[in-house]
Design a protein that fits this description.
Catalytic activity: a lipid A disaccharide + ATP = a lipid IVA + ADP + H(+)
Protein name: Tetraacyldisaccharide 4'-kinase
Structural class: alpha/beta
Strand order of the largest sheet: 3-4-2-5-1-6-7-8-15
Shape: globular
Pathway: Glycolipid biosynthesis; lipid IV(A) biosynthesis; lipid IV(A) from (3R)-3-hydroxytetradecanoyl-[acyl-carrier-protein] and UDP-N-acetyl-alpha-D-glucosamine: step 6/6
Radius of gyration: 20 Å
Largest sheet: 9 strands, mixed
Function: Transfers the gamma-phosphate of ATP to the 4'-position of a tetraacyldisaccharide 1-phosphate intermediate (termed DS-1-P) to form tetraacyldisaccharide 1,4'-bis-phosphate (lipid IVA).
Keywords: ATP-binding, Kinase, Lipid A biosynthesis, Lipid biosynthesis, Lipid metabolism, Nucleotide-binding, Transferase
Length: 326
């Protein structure tokens, strides 16, 4: 909501509802902390990659980056996810690169395609872990989202934040974008800011595009070879994708922002891709593959993560903590 990121009177009018939301969430968290409500302890270490605010912050590229970095260290990694937007008839579901994204969800299928690691989705994260460990050899588990899912115990918490939007007006839902108060950041292990540094940064993530891949032929082409086109994005912050392309000197004749996890059908896109390339995110491409046209291209991005200035050696500390867990 735009008013979450401005000094809006509407936010103040909604504060009583935010107070109720905060009170309920605090009581619930306390009940888990006091073991009045039971939580599940996985037999393998669990790393949560989540966020404090709603909307796209860049969690999926962080999950992919984390998997690849841990694989370089010789660790066997599995991923669990709630599978937001998936329409599987049964849960838990083991997601593979060939899974229909309608059944498996766009982000879990993307993670499976990019990393090759086992991915299991279920609203019940205990069931997801049990299926994962029953069918796969894993040294540790990465949970895509779930920072506020206190029914699942965790060993490491990583928060991903949009550097520019940060925590918005600092209010919890519905007056602001937060699921928990900013003070929650004091108890997490690691804060990654996407797109730059802010007051909360431990490390800084830049999403770097190198080439476009054709949805029909799988041809790879350097982005510098394109000068114009149109673009769509069904992600949490579509404008970030459009700006990235424009910063690469690609003139966009048309852009269309869709809702995050948008379900695509051919008629939604047919007027956008007339006689010019249509660019989309990798997340959107997994849902458009079945009806793609020859001038449709997706742009994968790689997360490049560096230490934030004056924050010490946070990355080595993270790897050391993980090594002590496995």
């Amino acid at each position: 909501m735009p008013f979450w990121y401005s000094n809006s009177k509407l936010a103040w009018l909604l504060l009583p509802f935010s107070l109720l939301f905060w009170l309920i969430s605090q009581i619930r968290r306390a009940l888990f902390s006091l073991n009045i409500l039971s939580s599940y302890k996985s037999p393998k270490p669990v790393i949560i990659v989540g966020n404090l605010s709603v909307g796209g912050n860049g969690k999926t590229p962080v999950v992919v980056w984390l998997v690849e970095e841990l694989q370089k260290q010789g660790l066997r990694v599995g991923v669990i996810s709630r599978g937001y937007g998936s329409q599987s008839k049964t849960y838990p579901l083991l997601v593979t690169p060939e899974t229909d994204p309608v059944q498996g969800g766009d982000e879990p299928v993307l993670i499976a395609k990019r990393t090759g690691v086992p991915v299991v989705i279920s609203p019940n994260r205990q069931q997801a872990i049990e299926l994962l460990l029953k069918t796969q050899d894993c040294d540790l588990i990465i949970s895509d989202d779930g920072l506020q899912h206190y029914k699942l115990q965790r060993d490491i918490e990583i928060v991903v934040m949009d550097a520019e939007r940060a925590l918005g007006n600092g209010f919890v839902l519905p007056a602001g974008p937060l699921r928990e108060l900013p003070s929650r950041l004091k108890s997490v292990d690691f804060v990654i800011t996407n797109g730059g540094k802010n007051a909360y940064s431990d490390v800084i993530m830049t999403l770097v595009p190198h080439y476009a891949i054709n949805l029909v032929t799988a041809e790879k082409r350097l982005l510098s070879e394109f000068t114009q086109g149109s673009a769509i994005a069904g992600i949490g912050n579509p404008q970030r994708f459009f700006t990235m392309l424009e910063n690469l000197n690609i003139r966009l004749a048309k852009t269309k922002a869709f809702h995050d996890h948008q379900h695509f059908e051919p008629q939604l896109l047919e007027k956008l891709a007339e006689n010019q390339p249509l660019f989309m995110t990798e997340k959107d491409a997994v849902k458009c593959q079945a009806f793609a046209k020859e001038n449709w291209w997706y742009v994968p991005v790689d997360a490049e993560i560096v230490e934030a200035e004056n924050q010490g050696q946070k990355l080595p500390q993270l790897w050391e903590k993980i090594r002590h867990l496995v």
